[in-house]
Amino acid sequence: MGRRNREKRAAKHRNRRRSAPKQERVEAFDPAADRAVLLEHLVVALSTAASGPADHLPYRATELLREFRDFAHELDVAADLAMNEAISAAWTHGWQPSDLHEIACRRMKPAEIRYLDEAIVGECRRYAAATLHPDWRADIARLSASVGSRAQPPQMWRWAASNAVDQRDGLVVVLKLLNLLGRLPALEVILPLPGTYRHTATTVTDADEKVLGRVRALLAKAEVTEFPDEAEALSAKAQDLMSRYSLNEAVARHNRGREPAAAARRIWIENPYAAAKATLVQVVSRSNRCRAVWAEGIGFVTVIGCETDLKLVELLTTSLLVQANRAMLRAGRAGTAQARSRTFRQSFLVAYAQRIGERLDNASASVTAEVERDVRLLPVLAANSRAAEDLAHRLFPSTVPRAVSASNGAGWGAGRAAANMAVLDTRDSIAG
Predict the structure, then answer these.
(1) Which residues pair with 302 in a beta bridge?
(2) Nearby residues of 305 by Cβ (< 8 Å), 6 or more positions away
(3) Which spans in 148-273 are helix H?
(4) Dihedral of alpha carbons 300, 305, 311, 314, sign
């Protein structure tokens, strides 16, 4: 039975209870009653209680425990069913496991986030692994590593006991999560829904993973070194390696008769200065033949391009954000109080992003010029670009460009200086 039908049925049931004598209301949930009907009613009761204002949820939890005091186990089971239903609805509205985790990290407490993560892992057990997109499986693997994957349902009272809280507090967490999930906006669906994925020839290969592993290792070294020149050389090698591989792989796919295919993925941005950090993702995307759209109200950038380029953008922006943050904090420690102000840091990050974009554009042009000796490259790149544009237009038909302001001259200068030291002169190629 669908959710709307259950709500109508529960409403009729409430109306009958209001008009019934007191003794009939007490007998409304006879232990001998059909368990499926009872669970159905409890799911609706949980969803209805969760739909109110957040500050009313503790009171709602107390009411539910009092009303269903003889059905604690059934309420525990119904909490799992309600969470599964809410999570499944989120999938149909474009959310992915990592998206739900990220939005919870911004709005919920750590223990509540772990509850949601475990519920997500549990919901996804319903699907055969082969019917989950590789990115989806990777999300579930990360969540499973943090919460474990062996816990058996039902979850609510077990979670309350393991966190040393009473049943009311456990129920409040469920209501808070249902409240969060019920208010999520619809997103663009960028992966096949769980249970519908079928393996295709465009899936990332072992060769892709080998190159990506080398890039990750180079960028990891660049992030931890205290020497700017070394960070520049390591980041340059990573960009050069990935750019060459991406261009050569594009030609190889064309030679194998594969049509150009674009994909999309989301990169979540941490506060503060999220808009300035999103600018960095956008310039890295542009320099690597991808499109980027900033969802400011939620906090992520959707990057659109071929799969190999998407991997590069994700790896490179993650590393550059670490380097930018470290350089920004270093400037604050070494400078005056102004260097620790919000306007300074905003301007620093915007300037950093702009300068990184300039250097990446130059680096990409240099690599492309070398590979262009293969006359097949330009039409292949043009076809890939059209595929990315078409997908971007389908997903975001009405996007509007927007600039991020920078009003602090000192921060602007410091940001450009930091970008000059961070990356990306790719004249020294790396052996493949």
Answers:
(1) 266, 293
(2) 262, 263, 285, 288, 289, 290, 291, 313, 384, 388
(3) 156-162, 167-182, 206-224, 228-255
(4) negative
Let me know: does 242 contact 273? Beta carbons within 8 Å: no
Question: 247 and 377 in contact (C-beta within 8 Å)?
Answer: yes
For 184, the token pair is 């999520």
Whether the CB-CB separation of 387 and 261 falls below 8 Å is answered with yes
**Residue 287: which of 344, 251, 246 has the closest Cα?**
246
Give me 142's structure tokens. 């990360």
Supply the pLDDT for residue 245: 86
Q: Put residue 44 in one of left, alpha, beta given phi > 0 → left and psi -120 to 50 → alpha.
A: alpha
- Using CA atoms, how far apart are residues 113 and 102, in angstroms rounded to an integer? 9
**Could you give the C-alpha distances from 308 to 86, 190, 199, 262, in angstroms and in order?**
33, 16, 17, 10
Cβ contacts of 53-57, under 8 Å, gap ≥ 24: 54/176, 54/179, 57/172, 57/175, 57/176, 57/179
Task: Report the alpha-carbon distance of residue 125 to residue 123 in Å, rounded.
Answer: 5
Give the list of residues 6+ apart from residue 302 with CB closer than 8 angstroms, or none: 188, 190, 264, 265, 266, 292, 293, 295, 395, 396
Task: Assign 295 to helix, strand or coil.
Answer: strand
Residues of the chain under the 70 pLDDT cut: 1-33, 149-150, 201-207, 228, 334-335, 337, 339, 370-372, 374, 400-432
Q: What Rg value do the Cα atoms of the chain yield, rounded?
A: 26
Neighbours of 243 (CB within 10 A): 25
Cis peptide leading into residue 185 (ω within 30°): no
Tokens of 286: 């542009």
Tell me if 172 sits within 8 A of 109, measured CB to CB: no
Q: 3-class DSSP state for residue 184? A: coil
In the block, which residue shows the tokens 């992966």? 191
Q: Which two structure tokens, joined as six digits, stand for 357?
A: 């974009």
Distance between CA atoms of 284 and 291, rounded to whole angstroms?
10
Q: Compute the distance between CA of residue 310 and CA of residue 266 in angstroms, rounded to an integer.
A: 10
Structural domain spans, the chain: 33-180, 204-419
pTM value is: 0.82
Tens of pLDDT along 380-407? 888 899 999 999 999 999 875 555 544 4
Question: What is the per-residue pLDDT for 29?
Answer: 52
Q: What is the DSSP letter of 290?
A: -
